[in-house]
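User: Can you help me understand a structure? I only have the sequence.
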Amino acid sequence: MIQAGERQELIIVKETGFGIYLAEHKESSEKVLLPKKEVGEGMKPGTKVEVFVYLDSSDRLIATRREPMVTIGRTAVLKVKDVTKIGAFLDWGLEKDLLLPFREQTGKVYPGDECLVALYLDKSSRLCATMRVYPYLKKNSPYQVNDQVHGRVYELSSNFGAFVAVDDQYSALIPKRESGVQGIRVGDRVQARVSGVKEDGKLDLSIREKAYLQIDEDAENVLGIIEEFDGVLPFDDKARPETIQREFGLSKNAFKRAVGRLLKEGRIAIADGKIRKVD
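Assistant: Let's start by predicting it. Here is the structure, written out as tokens:
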């Protein structure tokens, strides 16, 4: 069976004035057209040709010798060419642009954007793109705990956190508990540290450094925000975690470490449930 969305080797079974017809074997009743403009010298009945099969503007199977940027079940980073009432259209290296339906978008996209997508067949056997790439990502990354990695955020979850494709191909997550995850958006490129490797190979990431490396930066940020409160913070390090997260974007432990550093350096003082900057 000729399968749309994949490269396959077919045999030439018929020549016409507008191209050649290809099939899996000479007796096959299922044929697909390779347009005349793509027919090369020496292509005669009986010759085998490697082609990619997709659907033309009339939803008919058609073959091409051009190399698409993505094939069925795989992922690729594609550029948005246009956005219409039915979805976005992506450049994937073929004459007919690839549809990314609105329902398959995990975040709003605009012309010129680049987005990580997978290629799939919809219920009508049409090739479409999806930004919901979780099932298509690899779990055999070469990375270990404390390695620095780069990735692309492809989906956000209020329950789990930010889903990331490391190197645009490996499955990873910035957990919801991580400080700073609230400011991340779909499409963001992030640099992160591997904080864990699960049994199935998926990665947990942290966008913060290890505590002893991050503490100096956190301390300076905390001091800057205290200054925005005119030098007197109306709560101390015993404040509720939700309050600390809202004001500083830090976990309570990270906040306490930063405050401890500033206290040790004599830059702040704590009294009456408040933190004051020391001039």
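Now, to help you interpret it: The chain has a mean pLDDT of 88. Residues 211-228 form the longest helix (18 residues). Let me know which part you'd like to focus on.
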